[in-house]
Amino acid sequence: MRTARYSLASLRADLTRLADAPDGPFSAGINLSENAIEIETTSLAAFNEWAAVHGSAIPAHAKLKVVHALPSPVLDIYGGLGLSGCTSGFSVIDGGGTRGTTTAGHCGNSQSYQGNDLPFVSENVGGWSDVQWHTAPSLTVLNLIQEPYYPYTRSITSSTYWGSQTVGSTVCKYGNTSGYSCGTITQKDHIPSCIPNARPVWVRASNGGAGGDSGAPVYLGNSAYGILACADSSVIIYGAVDWVESDLGVTILTY
């Protein structure tokens, strides 16, 4: 047991005075073991200038610490979100463990989410697929897709490949423009006019979509089915996850 020079109440009072001042270039908290307020900043000069401008006296028991960076907001990215050009598809991971997100290949290669750039990696447009993927270095990539109902996201824990997708079965999609809808697979050997040099492996379903839905995840339950490439008010065309993985050299993130 040892005697503390400053009471917890006085430390909290001084910390509250810092909190009541305009937002400054620092983060601060009480270090109980040191009986002090610990202030972290990336620049002592910037912090001192802020304190002088706003008349904020630095508590005598404060400890200033220069750090490389301050904590910043963390955003999650997953399927069904509005990118700068299209809709995010399934989250993926490559052989080296790098995670990222997909969208339609015909969408622009410069994509971002809520102001965060998504560096382009690779794409394929035509033949078997219409897909591209991007890393997300400033975001947390999760194996989720957007849902319209509470809790508003759905986990993707498996993939259903083209050979196991059957005509007459149900599939759902979540597009940034038209939102959530489910329909029935009407063809799985389709050659769509919207895909250059298309092979007869495209899946056509009766969901319906709109412009801006390109790249949207197509799924059923917790299983990934494909990436939406083309749509009108009554039809969607998507490439199965087989070709997403093989053409991009990635795996659908399922954990």
Q: Overview of this structure, please?
A:
The protein is mainly beta. The chain folds into 2 domains: 8-66, GMP Synthetase, Chain A, domain 3; 75-252, Beta Barrel (Thrombin, subunit H), CATH 2.40.10.10. The chain is 13% helix and 42% strand. The chain is built from 3 helices and 20 strands. Strands 14-15-16-19-18-17 form a 6-stranded antiparallel β-barrel. The chain has a 5-stranded antiparallel sheet with strand order 9-10-6-5-20. The protein is elongated and about 75 Å long. The two termini are 47 Å apart. The model has no long low-confidence stretch (mean pLDDT 93).
Per CATH, the class of the largest domain reads Mainly Beta
State the end-to-end distance.
Answer: 47 Å
Low-confidence stretches: none
Give Rg in angstroms: 25 Å
Share in helix: 10-25%
What is the strand arrangement across the widest sheet?
14-15-16-19-18-17
The share of residues in extended strands comes to 35-45%
Compute the average pLDDT: 93
Query: Which structural category do the helix and sheet elements fall into?
Result: mainly beta
Individual helix count: 3
User: Main sheet, how many strands, which sense, barrel?
Assistant: 6 strands, antiparallel, barrel
Number of strands: 20
Give the ordered list of helices and strands. Answer: HEEHEEEEEEEEEEEEEEEEEHE
The outline comes out as elongated
How many structural domains can be distinguished in the coordinates? Answer: 2
| Topology-level CATH name of the largest domain | Thrombin, subunit H
Architecture (CATH level 2) name of the largest domain: Beta Barrel
